[in-house]
Amino acid sequence: MNKNWGAIDRYAKSLIKEAGHRIRVSFYTEIDVETKSSASDLVTNIDREIEQFFITRIRKDFPDHRVMGEEGFGDTIESLEGVVWFLDPIDGTMNFVHQRRNFAISLGIYVDGIGMFGYIYDVMRDDFYHAAKGEGAYFNDERLPRLENTSVNEAMIGINASWVAPNPRIHHEPVIELVRSCRGTRSYGSAALELAYVSSGRIDAYMSLRLSPWDVAGGIIIAGEVGAIATTMENEPLSLLGQETFIVAKPQLHEEIIENYIQLKG
Ligand code: IPD
Ligand code: CA
Ligand code: CA
Predict the structure, then answer these.
(1) The predicted structure's pLDDT at residue 1
(2) Percentage of the chain with pLDDT > 70?
(3) How much distance in Å is there from the Cα of 266 to the middle of ligand 2?
(4) Beta strand pairing call for 33-35 and 42-44
(5) Using CB atoms within 10 A of its CB, is residue 149 exposed (0-12), middle (13-18) or buried (19+)?
(6) How far is the CA of 254 from the centre of ligand 3 (A)?
(7) Helix (H) / strand (E) containing 221
(8) I want to staple 117 with a disulfide (CB 3.0 to 4.6 A). Which of 21, 71, 109, 165 is the partner?
(9) CA angle 34-40-45, nearest 5°?
(10) At what angle do helices 251-265 and 172-181 cross, to 10 degrees?
(11) Pocket around ligand 1: residues whose beta carbon is below 6 Å from it?
(12) Could you read off the pLDDT of 3-36 as tens digits, one per residue?
């Protein structure tokens, strides 16, 4: 990594820590909660303020970089050329609103579509997951070991209960079969934290039938550094340009889940 990249890495880490502090302080103020596309799609003034905080700083200090942010204060990204920062200022807004914990800041920095730095900050636990391409992944200051394989029947799988009910996005029958055959399921309500948990071996896979680039861009860099595989449920590479189905898992487990899914959906 050249010197400039090291400086960008340090810059991003300090920005995230400062944003985390701002979020914790926000609990002493009144938080306005609004719904977006549905009653379960929440946004608050804090999501917006934190995104603006990042974007103002990044635009000032790196004017030629572009930012894709969930709340729309960034750039319209139609190609991954150049340096692109993918930001979710609060991933797990429902948890932020209802629980005041179990949410994260998620950030990924890409150069010409290649993930260079990934960060997930569990704000209330002050747990920081981060990785630089080719240099391993870390949980706080501890290097995360490469993942060992697990078969479906011994696996804990991160999955939201909505995906086992009939839904317009995917074939739910193969998902029911997966839920029946695995050791257990968990649902944490933050895609970024679920990616962090796969990376640190607390769960073995995480899947979702609809995620956006800012939900996963940081996490897949961290997961990739410990050997996890992330693709769509059709086993295609992620485009990071729009909403997609998503799975991240230990390599053999990824293969087993995808094969069963594709075979059972017919
Ligand atoms: C959501 C969370 C949730 C996932 C949703 C995401 P948000 O992000 O990651 O776990 O199931 O699909 O949209 O809206 O809280 O940033
Ligand atoms: Ca999100
Ligand atoms: Ca969000």
Answers:
(1) 57
(2) 99
(3) 31
(4) antiparallel
(5) middle
(6) 26
(7) helix 213-225
(8) 109
(9) 25
(10) 140
(11) 70, 88, 91-93, 160, 189-191, 208, 210-211, 215
(12) 699 999 999 999 999 999 999 999 999 999 999 9
Q: Which residue's alpha carbon is nearest to atom 1 within ligand 1?
A: 92
For ligand 1, mutation pick of 33, 106, 211 (most atoms within 8 Å of CB): 211
CB proximity list for 1: less than 8 A, separation 6 or greater: 9, 132, 135
Q: How far is the CA of 191 from the centre of ligand 1 (A)?
A: 6
Q: Where are the domains of the chain?
A: 3-143, 152-261
Length of the chain: 266
Single-letter residue type at 60: K
pLDDT given at position 168? 81
62: tokens are 């790196």
pLDDT tens readout for residues 131-177 = 999 999 999 999 999 999 999 999 999 999 988 999 887 789 999 99
Q: Is domain 3-143 classified as CATH 3.40.50.170? A: no
CB neighbours of residue 263 within 10 Å: 9
Cβ pair 68, 113 in contact under 8 A: no
Bridging pattern class, strands 66-69 and 83-91: parallel
pLDDT tens figures, 205-233: 999 989 999 999 999 999 999 999 999 99
**Which fold would CATH assign to domain 152-261?**
D-Maltodextrin-Binding Protein; domain 2 (3.40.190)
Nearest-atom index, ligand 1, CA of 208: 11
